[in-house]
Design brief:
The structure holds two protein chains of two kinds.
Chain A lengths: L1 E6 L17 E6 L5 E5 L9 H11 L2 E5 L5 H9 L3 E3 L8 H8 L1
Parallel strand pairs in A: 1-4, 4-5
Antiparallel strand pairs in A: 1-2, 2-3
Helix pairs in contact in A: 1-2
Chain B lengths: L2 E5 L7 H15 L4 E5 L15 E15 L9 H4 L6 E4 L4 E4 L9 H5 L5 E16 L2 E9 L6 H11 L6 E5 L6 H7 L4 E6 L3 H17 L3 E5 L7 H9 L3 E5 L4 H8 L3 H7 L3 H15 L2
Parallel strand pairs in B: 1-8, 1-9, 2-7, 2-8, 9-10, 10-11
Antiparallel strand pairs in B: 3-6, 4-5, 6-7
Helix pairs in contact in B: 1-10, 4-5, 8-9
Classes of the chains: A alpha/beta, B alpha/beta.
Chain lengths: 104, 290
């Protein structure tokens, strides 16, 4: 199982990024290996359709759970179809490290 | 025949007043054949000024939107790679292959490149063209976008391509602003009249429109409407930019009242604007041999 978390930098000390489709990085936490990989968001500067593009990318990387502050309508629609769980943290300033500790 | 487009960067400056004024001047005072076109497809309201006309014809418009047959699709990704608008989503493991109708520009590229014959185009309604007239003559045509759809430009493009009567003078009431629907409305005009009001907002938005018109290299001039305030700053700007001032229409509360009742008789004839519009017509006529 892989959890994707929007992240404003590529370290575990970074905070969850307030944007979903246009976040700077995604932290991909692999529950089986316990490893966390940071990937650059290649769609962050696209003109339109960012939400769908990001969902497509994450789904094709076998992500089954996403942590973000907010999800747009197009992204939400697709995520529901794909049965990918959406998680919104209560604390908006939470770090990637703290999120990983919580979802373990 | 010639096409005059009335535009403005800011809403509410008097595009419709000028459009109707010129249309009536052509028909009634000069005995010319002219058709008014309402391109403000999100909120077409010129017809409110023409209660005497009947709705003669309503023509539905559609755009082709591709649909992907997920059974036939092999998820090769060619359609997605050739889509300039990020409208296609492909998720093979979930068998999802879909096109976002909001993002699709109906360019047809995906249909061309699909080797699986999995993509067909359906005709999605986007709005209509309504034609109003009397005594066998069409005098007003409006474009009307279906509420909530983002296809202003597609509708205006079809309107321009197939619904303009080339045998008569065309007076086009453009939507406000400076984005795609406006660009498509003014493109191909023989002359553009930019209507501005002398306020800081009016000047700011006029400057934006001027940038667009210079960019597309269209002949244009400016009408300063509601010219009771200080028009000095706006006139100084026009002079500096070498832009022709067509006319200044003074502010008149009675005209505003006539407008609020959608009474074109009151706007043009009861309040002495007849000569203003005749002068504007003559100015433009001289420019483009109307």
């Amino acid at each position: 199982m892989i959890t994707a978390i929007t992240s404003n930098a590529n370290t575990k000390a970074a905070q969850v990024d307030e944007k979903f489709g246009r976040c700077a990085y995604f932290a991909l936490h692999n529950h089986a290996t316990g490893e966390t990989e940071f990937i650059d968001n290649p769609h962050k500067n696209n003109k339109g359709g960012v939400g769908s593009s990001v969902v497509e990318m994450l789904a094709n990387r076998e992500v089954t759970q996403i942590v973000a502050i907010e999800f747009g309508p197009k992204a939400k629609n697709l995520l529901e179809k794909l049965s990918i769980q959406m998680i919104v943290p209560e604390n908006k300033q939470i770090t990637i490290e703290e999120i990983i500790a919580k979802i373990k | 025949m010639k096409k005059i487009v009335i535009a403005s960067g800011k809403g509410g400056t008097g595009k419709t007043t000028v459009s109707i004024g010129l249309h009536q001047t052509a028909l009634k005072d000069l005995n010319r054949e002219a058709v008014l076109y309402d391109f403000d497809v999100e909120e077409p309201n010129d017809h409110l000024f023409y209660q005497e006309l009947e709705l003669k014809k309503s023509i539905g418009l559609t755009i082709p939107i591709p649909q992907i047959d997920e059974e036939k699709c092999t998820f090769c990704g060619k359609c997605k790679a050739n889509c300039s608008f990020n409208a296609i989503t492909l998720i093979p493991k979930a068998n999802i292959a879909q096109v976002s109708t909001e993002l699709c520009h109906s360019c047809g590229a995906c249909v061309l490149v699909c080797k699986d014959e999995a993509i067909t185009e359906i005709h999605q309604p986007i709005g209509e063209i309504n034609e109003f007239g009397q005594n066998g003559q069409i005098l007003l045509k409006e474009g009307r976008l279906e509420i909530g759809l983002p296809h202003q430009t597609a509708l205006i493009r079809q309107f321009k391509k197939s619904h303009i009567d080339r045998s008569k003078v065309a007076i086009v009431d453009a939507p406000p602003g400076t984005s795609c629907p406006v660009v498509h409305s003014v493109e191909g005009a023989d002359y553009v009249i930019a209507v501005a009001e002398p306020s800081p907002f009016g000047l700011n938005d006029l400057k934006l429109l001027v940038e667009v018109l210079n960019d597309i290299k269209l002949p244009y001039g400016v009408i300063i409407n509601k010219a009771d305030n200080d028009t000095e700053e706006m006139e100084a700007y026009l002079k500096k930019q070498n832009i022709e001032l067509i006319a200044k229409i003074p502010y008149d509360k009675n005209v505003a009242e006539g407008y609020s009742k959608a009474n074109k008789q009151s706007i043009i004839y009861d309040n002495n604007l007849k000569d203003e519009f005749l002068n504007i017509w003559n100015f433009v006529a001289k420019k483009i041999n109307l």
